[in-house]
Amino acid sequence: xxxxxxxxxxxxxxxxxxxxxxxxxxxxxxxxxxxxxxxxxxxxxxxxxxxxxxxxxxxxxxxxxxxxxxxxxxxxxxxxxxxxxxxxxxxxxxxxxxxxxxxxxxxxxxxxxxxxxxxxxxxxxxxxxxxxxxxxxxxxxxxxxxxxxxxxxxxxxxxxxxxxxxxxxxxxxxxxxxxxxxxxxxxxxxxxxxxxxxxxxxxxxxxxxxxxxxxxxxxxxxxxxxxxxxxxxxxxxxxxxxxxxxxxxxxxxxxxxxxxxxxxxxxxxxxxxxxxxxxxxxxxxxxxxxxxxxxxxxxxxxxxxxxxxxxxxxxxxxxxxxxxxxxxxxxxxxxxxxxxxxxxxxxxxxxx
Length: 352
Known about the structure:
Blueprint: H1 7-11, E1 22-26, E2 31-36, E3 42-47, E4 53-60, E5 72-73, E6 79-82, E7 87-90, E8 99-103, E9 107-111, E10 125-130, E11 143-148, E12 155-160, E13 164-169, E14 174-180, E15 186-191, E16 196-201, E17 205-210, E18 217-222, E19 230-235, E20 242-247, E21 253-257, E22 266-268, E23 275-280, E24 287-292, E25 296-301, E26 318-321, E27 328-331, E28 338-343, E29 346-351
Antiparallel strand pairs: 1-29, 2-3, 3-4, 4-5, 4-6, 7-8, 8-9, 9-10, 11-12, 12-13, 13-14, 15-16, 16-17, 17-18, 19-20, 20-21, 21-22, 23-24, 24-25, 25-26, 27-28, 28-29
């Protein structure tokens, strides 16, 4: 990834001047979940309505010649979704079947061909509903998040409020394994290698699991304040030694080195309100982005050795102010110069 442009490039446009690095698409509902396709210039967004009836909208954009007109919703490829999706993710293999996964009361897989983005394109089709409810129960525990395994794409790991993490074999539609991962609700999950994943929980811990030894896990971090939940986890796919985690009601981004469990190698403290989302750059080892209730998306460049972050911290290399609380962000793996943020009923596409 090229070195990010200085803060002025994304943040200095006058209020009445269109920002050449930011494009906005408004939808008729509040937005939470976001996901970029690895095979087409398409972004999926999920509504956040406290209701059974929610919506997944697909948006198209032009990564080469961006414009406000080219960033638009695709009504033919949008569909109804039961409950607000807590996460959306496309099949990470671009050449694989064009599937979009979603989580809410269950894990769902939708067939979403993206070779036709016209108004006459066929609508996405629900292919699978995967849940592990007990036979005698009418309900299953809600899913807080999931992650699709890039190295082994038949595997999707889900996180649930019932303290479990479940690994699904989506090719066969069966549970490969289910682990009681934490003492309280599991809030997020991320794959590292084909058989290794990590999770964060309301019990305040980050734990790493190896499917070759399901009886044990490694605690790589615990909240400094007892009973402070951990909400989000991002594993650096370009350098698997590093993770980033977010704590509830905290403005800090905690950077962890799994080789040195217990103490963060860095804490990033420039948000002025709670941090809500974090993502590593898809093709760079030392860049990550965070966003929060202060309305800011911050891109950070860590030193070559993360442990070299000084005690007073570091400043972000790019600051973007959305003007409203940012709920979510995603960095496009197929188009690493682009990321998306969600706030209120808007999705914004940002060039970095």
